[in-house]
Amino acid sequence: MKLHIPNSAFLGNIDCFIRNFDNSDPASLEITANQKWIAVHPLVLVMTAALAARVGAKNVVCREFEAKSKHYLQRMGLFEWIGAAADRGLVEHEPAGRFIPIQRIRSSSELERFITEMIPLLHLEPPHSQTIVYIVSELARNVLEHAESEHGAFLSAQYYKKSNSIRIGIADTGIGIRRAITRSHAAADDLAAIRLALTPGITGTTTREGGTAQNAGAGLFFTKSIASVNRDFLVVYSGSGFYKLLKKAEDRKNPYLLREDPFKDRHSALDAVPAWPGTVVGIDITLDRTGEFDALLDAIRMTYGRAVRDRRSARYRKPRFT
Amino acid sequence: MKTISIKDKAGNFAENKDVARELREGVLLPALDAGEGVALDFDGVNDATQSFVHALISEAMRRHGAEVLDRIEFKSCTPRVRKIIAIVVEYMQAGM
Question: How many CB contacts within 8 angstroms connect chain A with chain B?
Fold first, then answer.
């Protein structure tokens, strides 16, 4: 496999980075990077770390990083994960921090501990902190419960002062959404599986409405709803499927309008990108807009209930009139 | 009526579904199966995920019907936790 860390890759323009991912030879990983300047979303870092963990450090080939901004990659813990030598001469900037270096989470207890520790790292206060930990919990638990990933979930986050936003990336090299969802639902391809996974009440664990005792099939829908109301990006990439919830203009009349079908949201979708061996989720959360979580929950309740009722009525038997 | 302190087991952010399963299988369902009432005490819990609440109460609703809500008391919930519980209760009933 080959991965090139470009000059710039954030959720708005991440398509190019993903299209350039070379997934041939899954036993090794060659990493190259822009030689001048690197500014990337945490998603890029966790994808790189997840692949490196999958192939093992001895099978990672990495040219020396020369970009002036390589201190960022070092600070985020990338060099450690890919087995590259750290530059001891680097001076670490921004003492205020507000970032979460690449973390690997492999168990429920690790996640619980991580959630407790992450808020001080991001220097967040409620209600922002509640929204961020909510998203991290739901995304990471999805990996632990459904991905069957030997290497766990790789997670990283960064606060961006200019946009007053938190950008979160999580990646795994597990079975992918399609294999998980098609245990109970038909999905013709990876993109169709992503669409189902983002639909409220659809889980790979059962065909039954309401889910199982342990799973409802709502975690990704909640996450997408938060991004949608916040008018922020959300990216889901699994296998050859790629879905991106796009930013949208403010709707003053109906700011909490949610759609159960992610394809009815403003989005872009690709169905033939180089296949990612697992699942990747990236999200941006603008903190200026996270204060109305309670109103969002009302909208989720109505949308979710409507989705379930619509699916039930679609299965009703119809009278035969002759 | 049996009382379950959520904070004691799940902390002030109730998100660990393994804990929810332990409470469900170890305390909640046995009490409801025995015809008892249960108070789920959220005192000190600032927030809960939908996944946690689902793992805690959905099986009770499926097993005993929506009427089981007459025997479950949700105590000391923050407005946010109330809304999460309302979401789960509503979609479970919509799906029954």
Answer: 100
Q: Does the CB of B24 have a partner CB in chain A at under 8 Å?
A: yes
CA–CA min distance A41, chain B (Å): 26
CA distance A141 to chain B (A): 9
Residue A98's nearest CA partner among A120, A126, A127 is A120
- Give the SS3 label for residue B69: helix
Domain parsing of chain A, residue ranges: 96-314
Domain range enclosing B55: 2-94
How many domains does the structure of chain B reveal? 1
Adjacency order of strands within the sheet including A60-62? A2-5, A29-33, A60-62
The two beta strands, A241-245 and B13-14, are unpaired
Q: pLDDT tens-digit profile of A43-102?
A: 999 999 999 999 998 999 998 888 888 888 999 999 999 987 666 555 555 545 689 999
Nearest CA in chain B to A139: B51
Burial of B67 (0-12, 13-18, 19+ CB in 10 A): exposed
Instruction: Give the closest residue to A237 by CA, choosing from A6, A44, A25.
Output: A44
* Chain A residues within 8 A of B51 when measuring between CB atoms: 137-138, 141, 215-216, 218-219
Is-contact B35 B2, C-beta < 8 A? no
Chain B contact for A2 (CB, 8 A cutoff): no
The 10s digit of each residue's pLDDT in A88-147 is: 555 555 545 689 999 999 999 999 989 988 888 888 887 788 889 999 999 999 999 999
Distance from CA of A48 to the nearest CA of B (A): 28
Paired tokens of A151:
């290497």
How is residue A280 written in tokens? 């990747």
Question: How many whole angstroms separate alpha carbon A216 and alpha carbon B92?
Answer: 9
Task: For residue range A2-23, list pLDDT tens digits in order.
Answer: 999 999 999 999 999 999 999 9
CATH superfamily of A96-314: Histidine kinase-like ATPase, C-terminal domain (3.30.565.10)
- Nearest by CB to A305, from B79, B80, B91: name it: B91
Q: How far apart are CA B56 and CA A266, in angstroms?
A: 34
Burial label, A30 (beta-carbon count in 10 A; 0-12, 13-18, 19+): middle
Residue B40: name the closest of B66, B2, B14 by CA.
B2
What is the amino acid identity at position B78? Answer: T
**Interface membership of A200 toward B (CB under 8 Å):** yes
